[in-house]
Amino acid sequence: MIPMWMAELSRLSGLSVPTIKFYLREGLLPAGTATGATRSTYDESHVRRLRLIRALTDVAGLRLDTVKQVLDGIDSAESWHDAVGSAHTRLAGTGEDSAPPTEASLARVDALLEIQGWQLAPGHPQAEILARALDALDEVGHPMSEDMLWFYAHAIRPIAMEEVLWVHSDEHGEEIEADVESAVVRTILTEPVILALRRIGQENVSRQLNEPKPDVPPDMRMWPERDR
Amino acid sequence: MIPMWMAELSRLSGLSVPTIKFYLREGLLPAGTATGATRSTYDESHVRRLRLIRALTDVAGLRLDTVKQVLDGIDSAESWHDAVGSAHTRLAGTGEDSAPPTEASLARVDALLEIQGWQLAPGHPQAEILARALDALDEVGHPMSEDMLWFYAHAIRPIAMEEVLWVHSDEHGEEIEADVESAVVRTILTEPVILALRRIGQENVSRQLNEPKPDVPPDMRMWPERDR
């Protein structure tokens, strides 16, 4: 580990010196090694942590207080499973001032978990988030049918399985911290990938429905024209 | 439409009077019908709009300025396809102060779109979001392999198709505004459903890998124990 000054840390991380100092004060970035009354040196682990903070804020769109909680979870976790659970709990905190989910939606989530063979501790934040999302769709007059909910669970299941198996099949380093960081970061940073692919897919299906190719005879069209 | 006073609007929407007045000032909620110098009445459309704002902020976690842009997009769109495209563009604006994606990642996205038979206009925000997410994973040292990226696209494709077909198969109301609102709201409000199901799935697969059932003989286990 080659020590570096703040200026070099700023250059390598792409973040300004005032921003880095702010992260130090807020406890997002561990202190450097003091080399005098007012100067400190930093190393590669600081560059890595700053890149992680930038990715979590810019790409995953997390607020700084949430980023801090996720980082604390990474730093204190002892296993992949713990760290992901901890990060999920902390990320779930974003809606903490919202109303609790209705009993009806919680019962729907329980039924879904049972049919999928999934277990969650009672009061688990993800079950509550799911129930609250179902309530919100009800409230705005677009309830999600049981068919749709089951379809989502069924379609997402293989994604979750592949993701966990990928992480487990990677060579495990000496440091559990690196493994844990990897799992949490991948989970969060692939959320925009999943949502972007879904929207790109929607736009393309929608376009196909709206604009059948003019040179395709009607009986050869993939999507029959609909009256509207 | 039965007119109501502000107090009734507050009761039905579950939002405080100061909050509603703030939304009126910010242009998130259309003005009511003036019935005097200082009093106005509101109707069911105001209740509906307030519930929508609450869902977009609390459940989808959008910032108020993004909510305003999404609502403006809904109000001015002329078709489902336009509205979803517009909402996607506006939602994509959250990372506008981030660095542009690298050429390498944009080329990967182009290759993915081609293999999936998908088209997007050049510079389309979702292509940029996707490319930026790939860059972020690179930067934090967890690059997404081509296999993984293609797996995601393949796994998400049927979700996008079902969603668009569901909306199209619904009876279309007289008001295009209601259709458009429905499509945009469903797209945004089902994001937490998708992400929560993914995390619940991950936790369950992870738990299965960590804790094989003690009463299952090793050769019957679904997940062989791994050295770690």
Give the gist of this structure:
Chain A has 228 residues and is mainly alpha-helical. Chain A has helices spanning 6-13, 17-25, 44-59, 64-76, 80-91, 103-116, 125-139, 146-169, 176-189, 191-210, and strands spanning 33-34, 40-41.
Biggest sheet layout of chain A:
2 strands, antiparallel
| Overall SS class of chain A | mainly alpha
Query: How large is the share of residues in beta strands of chain A?
Result: under 5%
| Cα gyration radius of chain A (Å) | 23 Å
Measured distance between first and last alpha carbons of chain A: 66 Å
Tally of distinct domains of chain A: 2
Unreliable spans of chain A = none
State mean pLDDT of chain A (0 to 100 scale): 79
Quaternary: homodimer
- The helix fraction of chain A, in percent, is 55-70%
Biased composition (Basic and acidic residues) (chains A, B): 210-228
Pfam families (chains A, B): MerR_1 (PF13411)
Protein name (chains A, B): MerR family transcriptional regulator
Region (Disordered) (chains A, B): 206-228
Secondary structure: elements and pairs:
The structure is a homodimer.
Chain A (H helix, E strand, L loop, with lengths): L5 H8 L3 H9 L7 E2 L5 E2 L2 H16 L4 H13 L3 H12 L11 H14 L8 H15 L6 H24 L6 H14 L1 H20 L18
Antiparallel strand pairs in A: 1-2
Helix pairs in contact in A: 1-3, 4-5, 4-9, 5-9, 6-7
Commentary on this structure:
- Chain A is mainly α and 228 residues long.
- Chain A has two domains: 1-59, Multidrug-efflux Transporter Regulator, Chain: A, Domain 2, CATH 1.10.1660; 79-210, no CATH class.
- Chain A is built from ten helices and two strands, in the order H-H-E-E-H-H-H-H-H-H-H-H.
- Chain A has a two-stranded antiparallel ribbon with strand order 1-2.
- In chain A, helix 5 (80-91) crosses helix 9 (176-189).
- Chain A starts with 5 loop residues before the first helix and ends in an 18-residue tail after the last helix.
- Chains A, B: This is MerR family transcriptional regulator.
